[in-house]
Specification:
The complex is a heterodimer of chains A (111) and B (112).
Chain A lengths: L3 E4 L2 E4 L5 E7 L5 E8 L3 E10 L2 E4 L6 E7 L2 E6 L8 E8 L6 E2 L3 E5 L1
Parallel strand pairs in A: 2-11
Antiparallel strand pairs in A: 1-3, 3-8, 4-5, 4-9, 5-6, 7-8, 9-10, 9-11
Chain B lengths: L3 E2 L4 E5 L4 E7 L6 E7 L6 E7 L4 E3 L3 E6 L4 E6 L8 E8 L7 E2 L3 E6 L1
Parallel strand pairs in B: 2-11
Antiparallel strand pairs in B: 1-3, 3-8, 4-5, 4-9, 6-7, 7-8, 9-10, 9-11
C-alpha cells in the first residue's frame, strides 16, 4: 500500500460521538486525500491537503474536518458522528496530482 | 459537479478471454484519466493512466483507449485471469483542479 497506513481499521461508535481517523504516510508525498466509499456512489472526496496546514474541501465535506500538522499525518474528524457517515474511508497520497496511492481503508459504523 | 460513469455494473468473462470495461465522462476539460482495480477488502490500486494528448496507452496485459470526441474511455485486459476478478474504477481530473472524480465501478468476475 505504498507506505500508507490507516488507523483504526474498524470502528463502531454511537451517534453524536466524535471520531478521528488517522492516515500516516512514509513516502513524503505532498498531497493527501480523504475519501468515503459507499455502494452506488464510488469514491467521493471529503477533504484534501496540498501541504502542511493547507487543506481544502471536497464534494462531501459537510460534517467533517481535517488537520495536517505534519507532512506524514492527515487526520479526519467527525465532530458529531451520524448514521449517514457509516462508510468505508480511504486515505490516498500523491506527489504530483497524478497517480494516487490508497491506504487499506477504515470501516466506520455509526449506530 | 463532475459526472463519471460506467456503462455496465457487472461483467463476467471466461478465463483466457479479453475483457473490456467502459467509462463515460462528462467534463470536456478533463485531461487526465486513471483506471484503478479494487479487490475485496482492499484499497484501490493504480492500473494505468492516460493523458488527453494520447488516445491509446498500453501496459502489461492492459490497454486504455481514450475517445475525447465522445468522452469515453475503456480498459482492455488481455487473457483475463482469475486474479483479475475485482471492481474496476475510472477516475478523471483536469489540470485546473486538485481533485479526481471516480466512477461507481464495474465488477469483473473471471470464470475458470
Amino acid at each position: 500500500d505504498a507506505g500508507i497506513t490507516q488507523s483504526p481499521r474498524h470502528k463502531v461508535t454511537e451517534t453524536g460521538t466524535p471520531v478521528t481517523l488517522r492516515c500516516h504516510q512514509t513516502e513524503n508525498h505532498r498531497y493527501m486525500y480523504w475519501y468515503r466509499q459507499d455502494p452506488g456512489h464510488g469514491l467521493r472526496l471529503i477533504h484534501y491537503s496540498y501541504g502542511v496546514k493547507d487543506t481544502d474541501k471536497g464534494e462531501v465535506s459537510d460534517g467533517y474536518s481535517v488537520s495536517r500538522s505534519k507532512t506524514e499525518d492527515f487526520l479526519l474528524t467527525l465532530e458529531s458522528a451520524t448514521s449517514s457517515q457509516t462508510s468505508v474511508y480511504f486515505c490516498a497520497i500523491s506527489e504530483n496530482l497524478a497517480e494516487q496511492f490508497f491506504g487499506p481503508g477504515t470501516r466506520l459504523t455509526v449506530l | 459537479g463532475e459526472s463519471v460513469g460506467l456503462h455496465l455494473p457487472t461483467l463476467s468473462v471466461q478465463e483466457g478471454d479479453n475483457s473490456i470495461i467502459n467509462c463515460a465522462y462528462s467534463n470536456s476539460a478533463s485531461d487526465y484519466f486513471i483506471w484503478y482495480k479494487q479487490e475485496s477488502g482492499k484499497g484501490p490500486q493504480f492500473i494505468i493512466d492516460i493523458r488527453s494528448n494520447m488516445d491509446k496507452r498500453q501496459g502489461q496485459r492492459v490497454t486504455v483507449l481514450l475517445n475525447k470526441t465522445v468522452k469515453h474511455l475503456s480498459l482492455q485486459i488481455a487473457a483475463t485471469q482469475p486474479g483479475d476478478s475485482a471492481v474496476y474504477f475510472c477516475a478523471e481530473s483536469s489540470n485546473t483542479g486538485n481533485q479526481f472524480y471516480f466512477g461507481t465501478g464495474t465488477s469483473l468476475t473471471v470464470i475458470p
